[in-house]
Amino acid sequence: LASLSPSSLVFLSMLRAACRAAVFPLATSASPFAPSMFQKLSSVLRAPALRSFATNNASNSLRTQLKSLAAPIRNSVQRAFATATQEAVAAPQQPSKLVGYWLFGCCGLVFTTVVVGGITRLTESGLSIVTWEPIRGVKRPGTQEEWEQEFEKYKQFPEYKYNQKITLDEFKFIFHMEWGHRVLGRLVGLAFVIPAALFYARGKILPQHKRTMLGLASLIGFQGALGWYMVKSGLDHDPMGAHVPRVSQYRLTAHLGSAFLLYWGMLWTGLQYMPVAARAPGVSYGRLPTAAVALAGLVFTTAMSGALVAGLDAGLVYNSFPKMGDDWVPSDILRLEPTYKNFFENTTTVQFDHRYLAIFTLCCINAMYFVSRRVPLHRRARFAVTGLTHMSWLQVILGISTLIYFVPTPLAATHQAGSLALLTFAVWFAHELKRLPK
Predict the structure, then answer these.
(1) Which of 38, 45, 201, 404: disulfide with 24, CB 3.0–4.6 Å?
(2) Cβ distance 295 to 367 under 8 Å?
(3) What are the C-alpha distances in Å from 208 to residues 105, 154, 200, 212?
(4) pTM for this structure?
């Protein structure tokens, strides 16, 4: 600094201008302690000081002043970076639509698996595979010898003993139905777990949903084990084959119920990643959001009562509507002892419960629709409640048709799919109301 060249003087002049034009305004707006510091720096870099650089005394004086400013400048920069880091951490993470679309895709796979499972049950194919091999079970028999070996395994269990007329070709059909249902279940697991791990690694999963994702993954695994537990009840039923082999209605209901809960969880979480609709100013929905959640629970309960009907083949009795035979309330509705068993094991009582629970659900949905028309709902919520109402009528019509035509497979499978579609609209509507900003 004893003797500065003209170019050095020009450089310091430019540094002074930069401090005044950029650094100083930024510091004054971002930090209360910075103005006096930068005013000192600006005074040091004024032209008279630059002209005195030729003398050693002036150079030593400038060096001393610069050293005195070095520590505050360093501290200011460190505090600025620390503040910026804290603000970045504190800022709420924005949901990614891509995660929502992925979860909706998983919902579609679950929906398909449920429908195929229903067809598998209706075609009496669920007991065709007598072993459970989560990994090796993906490969189906390929040669004639392998098919015959699989057929021989099937012959050792009650379903073949009850109906010994089944041929190898007929066995291949029911085997493929059950095999397809199991493969779809494995596909649901892969389609969920692998992308979930990738989204988690990239920080796309919201912090409040990390446990939810783990719970959904666990439910998928539980669902697979529960499916085999259900099938096992049919394989162990009446080993001599004297009666129609049938899986436990309790296990069937648990298996279907866990699938519905899995679907509900995926759908609700996926909707969390979609944009939030705005609430109309000055509008209060009161208890309507809570009632919408309760309505979704009622739809779920009605579907589970239908699972009991399916498990007991209760749709094959009293194939008339609105009366059950000649009576509104059949005489054998409480024929079992103790009384509580009628609600789970008496085909008449189970069908009676499902009929009137479905009618009650239909009335509640229509009441919700008319109440919601008095409230200024946003477009998505309005569409959801309208779809829920229309779907409820269609579902009741499908149920009545399935009953009076003695449970044909196409109608029965459509009725089961309709229950999940109805739950979709109910969950969607409940979510739209629950997520509205206060």
Answers:
(1) 38
(2) no
(3) 21, 47, 12, 8
(4) 0.78
